[in-house]
């Protein structure tokens, strides 16, 4: 996902750049320092998602967003501001979301999830895959998506847990999530992808977070982040 930051304050710009580099599917374009610079860079780099500061010199964020709405397709906009009252005007411009400064990592995760979902809606749906090929030594093992319990990120590796055991994959978590689209998986946390068909129970934890307990897997608890909780609960009610 091609992402651009538009922010005139250096510290805020660097903070957001640092947070975004932690997301494996984010491809950062050069940043802009004002709306005028944004309009020039947008034509060159064609970002899919723009984090746009509202209060900037020259062309402000609101005016820049109005002009960007004429692009084909228009980029998704997440307004960034230190003032919550700007949110009303932001959503009046059909912004995807808004973030308050200083930036909260959980809210940033939520904004990125919204962007991913919106971009998936723009893309013609693909037929769900029937098999996933996973490496085991020098062999390739065929695993049915419906037999995968969950996947987790361990340091820089993604590990898939299924009825045939535990497999490491070279896929990133986002690439795995994309491959499994069309199957009942939900991203419960930035480091966990869960097959909701195996969810047995969900227990409240703390500060709006939860733990998922899986059928037949005693002692394993899958975290649900505050940002992902709403989507997880909605998926479980379907």
UniProtKB/TrEMBL annotation:
It comes from the Bacteria. PROSITE patterns: HTH_LYTTR, RESPONSE_REGULATORY. The modification 4-aspartylphosphate is found at residue 53. Residues 132-238 form the HTH LytTR-type domain. InterPro entries: CheY-like_superfamily, LytR-like, LytTR_DNA-bd_dom, Sig_transdc_resp-reg_receiver. Keywords: Phosphoprotein. The keyword Phosphoprotein applies. Residues 2-116 form the Response regulatory domain. GO terms for molecular function: DNA binding; phosphorelay response regulator activity. May play the central regulatory role in sporulation. It may be an element of the effector pathway responsible for the activation of sporulation genes in response to nutritional stress. Spo0A may act in concert with spo0H (a sigma factor) to control the expression of some genes that are critical to the sporulation process. This is Stage 0 sporulation protein A homolog. It comes from Heliomicrobium gestii.
